[in-house]
Recover the amino acids of this structure.
């Protein structure tokens, strides 16, 4: 079933219809983000949960600008030449987290293949600023693949985030179409490296997390195979949600995956040994991330 978002009268299935979120703290959150000149993946990626999260006083920060050097065909973030890094961003982001009184802070990024370290040092600066401004909060990073540089993965791991997230996004067969410029094995290697680095240090483990979009043409068997690969890589937490086409220039939806399929995959995930699985149509990588870490 194809879904031409914004260009067709085809209706979403009942399980993808939801009431508009009550305003709550949304205006205050948006005003703070504007005041501090911060980006969120909620806005840039047109997340369907944006209203709910902003209304509840939460947001997922997106660092290093709002222009990405990759051209993934599912993502609403603009592909363009990014601006230079903003050295004041870590402090402003930490200020926002403190003023929002966040207990769990999720920080993601555009991919910055133009930077020698892929932005690893900037990630570290953000984590350090958050540790100083909101020492009681847990910090989750959602990184790029750093173009395969495991040394850059080590750099971010050394900042000791409470969760290290890197999304596989889809099954290997669809990578060339969905994630041009990315590589399935390379993304798996990021998650493996975090565990390897933590073990080498002899200290506490770093929980790892990954996410998948469903509805791009993958089979259930392919998804289960990816889940097994993630467990072999030591991945602890998994999110799975329905892909929704951000605009007519993006990939169409192949299938609206029913809730019972998401529930089945969640059960299989727990059987495989994942510590936490969030699997439902509206789940996104950072949706209720704090609750997932607590689980």
């Amino acid at each position: 079933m194809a879904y031409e978002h914004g260009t067709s009268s085809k209706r979403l299935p009942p399980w993808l219809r939801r009431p508009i979120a009550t305003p709550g703290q949304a205006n205050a959150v948006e005003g703070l983000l504007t005041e501090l000149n911060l980006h969120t993946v909620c806005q840039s990626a047109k997340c369907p949960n944006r209203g709910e999260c902003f209304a509840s006083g939460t947001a997922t920060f997106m660092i290093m600008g709002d222009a990405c050097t990759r051209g993934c065909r599912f993502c609403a973030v603009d592909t363009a030449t990014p601006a230079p890094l903003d050295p004041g961003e870590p402090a402003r982001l930490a200020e926002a987290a403190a003023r929002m009184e966040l207990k769990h802070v999720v920080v993601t990024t555009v991919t910055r293949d133009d930077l020698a370290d892929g932005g690893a040092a900037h990630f570290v600066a953000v984590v350090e600023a958050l540790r100083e401004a909101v020492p009681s909060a847990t910090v989750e990073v959602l990184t790029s693949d750093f173009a395969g540089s495991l040394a850059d993965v080590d750099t971010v791991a050394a900042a000791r985030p409470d969760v290290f997230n890197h999304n596989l996004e889809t099954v290997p067969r669809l990578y060339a179409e969905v994630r041009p410029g990315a590589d399935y094995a390379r993304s798996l290697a990021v998650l493996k490296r975090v565990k390897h680095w933590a073990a080498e240090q002899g200290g506490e483990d770093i929980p790892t997390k990954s996410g998948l979009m469903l509805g791009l043409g993958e089979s259930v068997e392919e998804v289960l195979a990816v889940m097994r690969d993630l467990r072999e890589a030591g991945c602890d937490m998994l999110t799975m949600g329905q892909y929704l086409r951000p605009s007519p220039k993006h990939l169409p939806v192949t299938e609206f995956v029913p809730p019972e399929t998401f529930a089945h995959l969640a059960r299989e995930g727990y059987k495989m040994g994942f510590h936490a699985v969030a699997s439902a149509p509206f789940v996104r990588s950072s949706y209720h991330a704090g609750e997932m870490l607590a689980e």
